[in-house]
Amino acid sequence: MKARLLREEDCRPSAEYPGVWRCRACNASGSGPKLSRCPKCTSVVGQRTGTMPAGTVIDNPDAWKLVLMGVAVPEDEECKERAGLNAAELAVRQAAQERVRLGIAPGDYQAFDDGLMVGYNPDDGSWKPGPNYDEAAWQERKQNSPIIIVEDE
User: Fold this and answer.
1) Are residues 112 and 77 in the same domain?
2) Are residues 153 and 96 in the same domain?
3) Could you give the CA distance from residue 102 to residue 150 in angstroms, rounded to a whole number?
4) Same domain for 146 and 110?
5) Model pLDDT, residue 22
6) Per-residue pLDDT, 134
7) What residue ranges of the chain have pLDDT lower than 70?
8) 36-49: per-residue pLDDT in tens?
9) Residues 69 and 97 occupy one common structural domain
10) Max CA-CA distance within the chain?
11) How far apart, in whole angstroms, are the C-alpha atoms of residue 26 and residue 16?
12) What angle do CA 123, 49, 54 make, to 5 degrees?
């Protein structure tokens, strides 16, 4: 059973996907074989993660579960049948996975789906305007919100 990844995904490090290491003390990082000590500051190296590139074909009896999660598409008929999703259902699952991946709050799902926002500004958590963002609609949303929004003056 085979499924193809839609995006780059983290995985356990392996010979095929050796991953990267990161030092917790000095924040140095690198790729390659497993290290126990940072070559820069000799501190203990943090957890290593591997990365599987987008388009990687997973050949595993449980590959259909990745399709159900929205992170992969079926690559063979067996996987397609086991997942049991039509094209519309597959698109819905992939869109839901994208919202989760971007950290969109459930209360903002509709705004994200409508293209009003594409994420959040790291400074203040405000929306990053999307292609369909409208300032007047945003002001109306703020007025009708059950949450009190305090703006600095």
Assistant:
1) no
2) no
3) 25
4) yes
5) 74
6) 80
7) 13-19, 32-34, 46-48, 141-142, 145-153
8) 788 888 887 766 67
9) yes
10) 60
11) 27
12) 80
